[in-house]
Amino acid sequence: MINIYTKEEIEKIKKAGVINNECHKYLASLIKPGISTKFLDDEAGRFIESHGGRPASKGYEGYPRNICISLNDEIVHGIAKDNVLLKEGDIITFDILTELNGYIADSATTWPVGKVNKEKEHLMHHTEKSLYVGLKEVKAGVPLGNVSARIQQYAEKHGLSVPHEIGGHGVGKEVHEDPFIANYGKYGEGILLKEGMVLAIEPMLVTGNRHVDILDDDWTIVTRDGSPSAHYEHTVAVTKDGYEILTGE
């Protein structure tokens, strides 16, 4: 079932999204070589809770951390560790879920650690751009496949690949709600978007081939060929004429 949210409920999701957005900015300010991903996760948890929210990833289906932190070839669902230290040239993704008063927002950003190479710069720039290309398709009455197709077209135009096993989803009262939102597809296909749907749209693109593996922790999804990955995500509400971003700009 796909939830339709009232304007009042969407405002509550947006309040959770404000915490998400500010948490991303705070964590970005801490990034430097030598610090551990566990330190960043601890800081994320403290930040969210100090603003009245709850880190909604923690405990979800047994996930052990406050947020998902993924490095380099880790696409999504990375688990922060004390012994994983950031290095110059890494790229790091924060995927943050915040619950506030029973409503959940979801967003992701990828950041450089110091100076990164041209491949990673290209990847980050065009993955973020692909999110906004996809969002341009969002409005009531439009097939969901239009969003997926536009993301795929943009990615492949810029030499990037789209893993097929992972994608976006509905969000609001639960971490993952219907519908699933692939980052590949055909224009004109899929369910029709309706005003009041709340969607987490999240391109996850890679520089190599699209194939993935899951590490022994049963969470971390990595590129099979070791190529780097980037991930950008916003929670948006579908409106009659377009969309509203609920997790900041």
Compile the SSE list and pairings:
Layout: H1 7-30, H2 37-50, E1 54-55, E2 68-71, E3 74-76, E4 91-100, E5 103-112, H3 118-135, H4 144-157, E6 168-170, E7 177-181, E8 198-201, E9 204-206, E10 212-214, E11 221-223, E12 229-231, E13 234-238, E14 243-245
Antiparallel strand pairs: 1-4, 2-4, 3-11, 4-5, 6-7, 6-8, 8-13, 9-12, 10-11, 13-14
Helix pairs in contact: 1-2, 3-4
Question: What would you note in describing this structure?
Answer:
By secondary structure, this protein is an alpha+beta fold. The protein has one domain: Creatinase/methionine aminopeptidase superfamily (Creatine Amidinohydrolase, Alpha-Beta Complex), CATH 3.90.230. It is built from 4 helices and 14 strands. The protein has helices at residues 7-30, 37-50, 118-135, 144-157; strands spanning 54-55, 68-71, 74-76, 91-100, 103-112, 168-170, 177-181, 198-201, 204-206, 212-214, 221-223, 229-231, 234-238, 243-245. The protein has a 5-stranded antiparallel beta sheet. Strands 1, 2, 4 and 5 form a 4-stranded antiparallel beta sheet that branches. Strands 3-11-10 form a 3-stranded antiparallel beta sheet, with no helix packed on it. Strand 10 (212-214) and strand 11 (221-223) form a beta hairpin. Helix 3 (118-135) packs antiparallel against helix 4. The longest helix is centred in the N-terminal third of the chain and has 24 residues, at 7-30. The protein is globular and about 50 Å long.
